[in-house]
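Predict structure. Input: DUF547 domain-containing protein, 252 residues.
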Amino acid sequence: MSSEETPAATEESKNVDRKEKDKGKQANASTWDKLLKDHVNDKGEVDYGGMMNDKAELEAYLAEISENAPAKNWSDDEKMAYWINAYNAFTVKLILDNKGVSSIKDIGPKTQIPFVNTPWDIKFIEIDGDKYDLNNIEHGILRKDFKKDPRYHFALVCAAESCPRLRNEAYTAKKLDKQLDEEGEAFLNNKAKNKISEDGVAISPLFKWYKKDFERKMPIAEWVNKYSDVKIDKKQDDFSYMDYSWKLNGAF
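Output follows.
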């Protein structure tokens, strides 16, 4: 979720050539799960002040996932859950490390070039000894390795109001399918992010920025009808888009 501009050529620069070990220990997500339950409400609003008070616990969880990366013997659901949790937890850390920002886009230089020097291009993530940025996880791993299931877009949270909500529970392989469907429903039925009615339809820019990801599976109208309480013409392919608020998805 690095920018409104996502040119394919620059996206490819974020590809990750990581070699998975044959076997690997599963990271324990219980610490992250407790942090989410304690400091995130049902709307996905984050109490960053509370997170700051428990930053040691967050750092402990990040250290554990940094040392226990996905391995070849993991299932696809285990890998996806890991990378979603990693993206969201490291995003929270980035906000805490820049206490007082009103938007994630306030982090870094005033003049920002997508895929070059934005907050999503900061190499502050270490996994198995390699350095990553948030764009590496989103574009270089999730978008590249999980093309058959773009529902992860409903789960990745870039700390902005117009992002999907931050689920107040950790993602797990066992519950992943249900969790992603629930986040799709929450996102499409949130009128601040998608306005879908008999009078008209205006959807989130996520469906424009990642149109090719979603349409590998089915047309955008079918995604809307899959999760929205209000149904639209399944043949509709021309949409209006909501404004995107980059205001922080919570407060200190």
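Strands lie at 46-47, 125-127, 130-132, 195-197, 200-203, 240-241, 250-251.
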